[in-house]
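Lab notebook, bench 4. Still working through the backlog of constructs that have no structural model yet. Next entry is a single chain of 535 residues. Request: give me the structure tokens for it.
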Amino acid sequence: MRSGLIRAWLLTGPLVVLLADVMPAGESGSVNSGGPANTACNILFAIADDWGPHAGAYGTPWVRTPAFDRVAAEGVLFRHAFTPMAKCAPSRAIVLTGRSFWQLEQAGNHMSYFPAKFTVWPEVLTRANWHMGYTGKGWGPGIAVDAADKPRQMTGKAWQKRRLQPPTEHVAVNDYAANFRDFLDAAPAGTPWCFWYGCLEPHRAYEYGSGVRQSDRKPASIDRVPQFWPDDETVRTDMLDYALEVEHADRHLGLMLRELETRGLLENTLVIVTSDHGMPFPRAKGYAYDASCRVPLAIRCPGVPAGQRGRTVDDFVSFPDLAPTILDYAGLSAADSGMADMYGQSLRPILESAGRGQIQPGRTQVIVGKERTDVGRPGDVGYPIRGLRTARYLYLCNYEPSRWPAGNPETGYLDTDGSPTKSLILQRGRVDRSDRHWLLNFGMRPAEELYDLQADPDCVRNLATVQQAVATELRRVLEAELRRSGDPRMLGNGAVFDGYPVSSGSGFYEAFKAGRRPPAGWVSPSDFEQEPVQP
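Model written out:
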């Protein structure tokens, strides 16, 4: 399943993520236009593919991440880091531009054509004579060409030559750490560099049972299964298979840190470690819940005194903050970068603060949501959502609740990757359409959802009709900020997102209904419902 998608990603270059997102509602979205006074440092970005906030530093006992934990212990660990949209291409477009998905036109959709007018920060660094490169996954899936219709190097030059024997049949053969060494060997003396470690793991598919066979863990090692999945050995085994691939990504990060130490470069390198969105499981990737949009984030800054390391920060940060942060540490002016106006703000004040907990009082909320996250519905339309995440609540507004949120049943619920967990829940639904887990993962949604995260961290008890005053106020705050920042859905033109062309798989639903079987390697053949399912 993964190989075809990987080929598409590698054609367009890497993609990284870091932190950053939406500005707290009501605050300015302007970016710091000046650069730092000190000499630019080097930059290492590490971005995993489909990794939720599961790490030792976050207290997860069934995932071992010594390299990530080291970056957190020697830097800053963010407890509230989010992507505004939990699907690969739009999430990465947000990181690259400093704009949120509703400000990115076609690039706000999955499998899109990236508008040539949106310059990305790796292009800015390249034009400023930085040694810019990547290994693994770049921006995508989608097509990115310039105004002359030539392919863009969205994240610099590719370093993909080195290969290894993977631990399972579905782990990529890319020797990420060896490719990083080649990149460093080629760096011109005295030239700053930026490397994008775009790990392809833990994207599916997995080798079922590998997480048990290749470790000392058992399904019982999982301390807690989210309430929206059945607490079943199949689900627990699937989670451990995911953990094994997270650990593969972390192992290569550790090798890169060691390489920087050996070369005497670590103390002059900004190290950022994150993921593009949550884990590739039902009700996570492709949705707008906490399991979807909350991401791991740890950043190690150069030149920070020992007493300021190992801090945990509660400020809400989101992917639009990434681009201004990168330009800030690169010593480049946003005003002169050629990039479109950014929605995010630099995280440098937080990273270089001595404080812990809440650093900037205004960073108390982020905006999440989605537009098209896959094909499979009639007309290739999406499932538009806008939401507001605060310290206590998650509010979601579903603008087209008559559509299937995970994609149409007859076309395999294409918004959710195939997996043993998905297959188990679908089978439960075929036995009983009132099954709680089927409804939570694949059933229809109301127009509004409201969750009290203090009492319900898994977001399974919708309070929108119970706490109407809270929902109304959160919607007011949300939509005021969306109007201020130019969201087409607030300006009467939300249908524009459904009209943008799809770069791959266009007309899937219509082809399927006509008796053809378009390729859909990211789901299982059994995901397609054979009998009609009533909304």
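Notes after review: The CA atoms of residues 108 and 385 lie 12 Å apart. The chain has a mean pLDDT of 93. Flag for follow-up if needed.
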